[in-house]
Design goal:
This protein is an alpha+beta fold. The chain folds into 3 domains: about 140 residues, FAD/NAD(P)-binding domain; about 140 residues, Protoporphyrinogen oxidase, mitochondrial, domain 2 (Polyamine Oxidase, Chain A, domain 2); about 90 residues, Orthogonal Bundle (protoporphyrinogen ix oxidase, domain 3), CATH 1.10.3110. Helix content is about 35%, strand content about 25%. Strands 1, 2, 10, 11, 12, 13, 19 and 20 form an 8-stranded mixed beta sheet that branches. A 7-stranded mixed beta sheet has the order 8-7-15-16-17-14-18. Strands 5-9-6 form a 3-stranded antiparallel beta sheet. α1 runs parallel beside α10, α1 packs parallel to α14 and α7 packs across α9.
Length: about 400
């Protein structure tokens, strides 16, 4: 039987962050990861030489928690252009972030995404949020995002052409029923910082945190079946004793370990990857959004335009996000995507090669107005962390991990 000060169950972002802060202050720990790699949902697969993140993911560089622990330079971040390309009947229309590109005010003023009043409201709203802290935002009275947008005065045209496709893609739900607090937080991150991906894929983020930790304190393929008191029972019969236990798993595994039966609703997504000879977005480094939320395709991104490492042998990697099509098999889904994107990009779509499809039914726990941060300390020696306990984001995973570490150190 092995004795440890703190045992962290789960090697996702929250568990790694907790371990990082404990290690920084000289506290001993053992981190147990049930799978063959660290990162949880933040994983990258190599398929035929292409780097496929498990679902379309980005890092928002203004995340307060990420700035505390990540070395952006060592991640070799590659940046998206700030804004989006909006699909229209006549092609694409750029909506650039005027805080990043001063000339964007001219293009925004003459674009048909929304009215001039809508564009001025974006500047006003961004200025209002600029100096408000994360805690202040989440302590504000909240409603659903759609009601908030309407009450702020944005037109239906602006909401339907920009806010719904853009933030619907962030929230993974089309009706913008997500809490307005979270909308305001995410809006601020996009305007104050950049959207980026590490050159070698999103898994570089958990791997960087893991590099800060002693290798002897991390075990992979170590699945915890359960625990009782201060004893943890692993597959294979091993028993570990810990002064403190931190459950840093996904919500379902956490419930199983804690003997809970919490009802949670999830937002789902499906991400399909293709390889191609050329980029359909012609190196624009924007995400292409579809305002028609009843369509198969919701957004298109070309990660290899952002970082050439995502491609292979000079070929292009294309990411297509869809929702509500989880029951389709890969062949039917791929055919439907290609038929729709033929109208976007023409005959080049016919020769795209399907690489892999990721159905992610439990991608994000739904976050509604009135939802509060759930308890992180469950008893004298039992803790939990994870973004599902706060709000769905990389920032919240890091924040809850840090807060649990601080509780332990106190």
């Amino acid at each position: 039987m092995n004795d440890f000060s703190t045992v962290i169950i789960g090697g996702g972002i929250s568990g790694l962050t907790c371990a990082k802060y404990l290690n920084e202050k000289g506290y001993s720990f053992l981190l147990l990861e049930g799978s063959d790699a660290l990162g949880g949902r933040v994983r990258t697969d190599n398929v035929d030489g292409f780097l496929l993140d498990r679902g379309f993911q980005i890092l928002l560089t203004n995340y307060p928690e990420a700035k505390k622990i990540l070395n952006y330079s060592n991640l070799d971040l590659r940046y998206f252009n700030s804004g989006a390309m909006i699909k229209t009947e006549k092609g694409f229309m750029k909506m650039e972030n005027p805080f990043k590109n001063k000339m964007a005010y001219l293009t925004m003023a003459f674009s048909s995404v929304g009215t001039l009043s809508d564009k001025l409201k974006i500047r006003k709203f961004a200025n209002e949020l600029a100096e408000i802290s994360e805690d202040e935002i989440f302590n504000m009275n909240a409603t659903d995002t759609l009601s908030f947008l309407r009450s702020y005065g944005w037109s239906d045209k602006m909401i339907n052409n920009f806010f719904k496709p853009f933030f619907g893609g962030v929230f993974l739900e089309n009706e913008l029923a997500t809490s307005s607090n979270f909308f305001q937080f995410v809006f601020k991150q996009f305007f104050k910082g950049d959207a980026a991906i590490p050159a070698e894929g999103m898994q570089a983020i958990p791997e960087q945190i893991a590099e800060m930790l002693p290798k002897i304190s991390i075990r992979k393929n170590a699945r915890v079946k359960g625990f009782e008191g201060n004893q943890l029972f692993l597959d294979g019969g091993e028993v570990i004793t810990a002064d403190r236990i931190v459950v840093a798993t996904d919500p379902k595994t956490s419930d199983e370990l804690l003997g809970e039966n919490t009802e949670r609703a999830y937002n789902t997504t499906t991400c399909t990857y293709f390889s191609a000879e050329v980029s359909p977005l012609k190196g624009q480094k924007f995400i292409a959004l579809n305002p028609n939320r009843k369509s198969v395709v919701h957004n298109v991104c070309v990660p290899s335009d952002i970082s050439s490492h995502y491609g292979q042998g000079g070929k292009t990697l294309i990411s297509v996000s869809t929702q509500g099509l989880e029951k389709l098999d890969e062949r039917n889904l791929t055919n439907r995507i290609k038929r729709e994107l033929f109208e976007w990009f023409g005959a080049q779509v016919n020769v795209w090669k399907h690489l892999k499809t990721y159905h992610i039914p439990e991608s994000l726990v739904q976050y509604r107005a009135g939802d509060e941060v759930q308890q992180l300390k469950l008893s004298g020696n039992l803790y939990r962390c994870g973004d599902y306990l706060a709000y769905p984001s990389l920032n919240a995973a890091m924040k809850t991990g840090r807060e649990v570490a601080q509780m332990i150190m106190e």
